[in-house]
Amino acid sequence: MQGKDISGHAPGGQRQRLADALPLDTPFVVQIFPVYACNFKCGYCIFSVEKESRGFISDKNLMDFTLYRKCVDEMAQFPRQIKVLRFVGIGEPLLHKKIIDMVGYATERNIAATTEIVTNGLLLDQRMVDGLVAAGLKRLVISIQGTSAEKYGEVAGAKVDFSRLLDNLAYLHRNRGETHVYIKIIDTALDGEADREKFHSLFGEYCDTIAVEQTVPIHKAIDFSLILKDKSNALTQFGLPLGQVSVCPQPFFHMQINPDGKVVPCYSWDYPAILGDCNTENVREIWNGEKFRHFRRAMLDGVQHASQTCIGCNIIRYRWFPEDDLSNDTDRLKPAFDCPSSKC
Q1: For 176-314, where are the alpha helices, taking DSSP H only?
Q2: What is the pTM (predicted TM-score) of this model?
Q3: pLDDT tens column, 304-333
Q4: Confidence of residue 343 (pLDDT cuts 50, 70, 90)
Q5: Domains of the chain, with CATH numbers?
Q6: Using an 8 Å Cβ cutoff, are 104 and 111 in contact?
């Protein structure tokens, strides 16, 4: 196996202590949510739930390329490079017909140190691989759903040509250039230790890093008891010890731009707030604007003060990194997010 096993570690590598960097004039992570659609219906994902039961997601299913270019041009106005521009969201990013052009335009404008896509990998044919590599994609995260076509049917509710999938990944590995390939799978998609070894054997040759991540109960609309069964929930998605979160760090370093241009502060599918609209507002001004500042300041008083959604949210608890803990720095940070007297 060539891929380095990073199970139990932060997949992006060493993280800096967030509290020491705040407040940020440039987000560490901007998440582009390009398409609200998926070719899978994984049981642990919201696409296994009927659309009317998901709540509000987006007024549009596809991000308009003109809007995307506007957003990138405005991200170029930040004082620093974004650390990560990530194409993900609620759906499969490679379904967007302009995804290669999106990556290419971000590379051309040099707005991010790393441009990343999180994908299920089914559409990674030779044309897609060649296009993304040439466009300057720095990191490709591929979420595998099983070690056989039968397992894909069980986990993802999809018919998959498994041999073709492996052939495409082999082509990707040979032609990845400077693109880092990370292949992962959730533990409940594996049937015991022998299947885990099979996963590493099948996919370890086609990546730079590889991991088995934990299945975690982060979406209220899904009955995770059927998926987790007797599995303990004592670990985060990345295999770290689980703890309580009194202050969510996500709005302090991250923003997500949805297909309709609306901006939300975190990874939650049940939005705690919509903090801007890129159709009518500037991305940099949204990040530094009153709505974001007010939301962050409320969060420093605890999740119960930020929004009702935040009170019951499990996402950050199960995607927690100790470097992001702000609980011991709230008093020091609050003045930086207090409302200027001239605006109150």
Answers
A1: 192-203, 225-228, 250-253, 283-287, 290-299, 303-306, 308-311
A2: 0.94
A3: 999 999 998 988 889 989 999 999 999 999
A4: low
A5: 21-119+214-336 (3.20.20.70)
A6: no
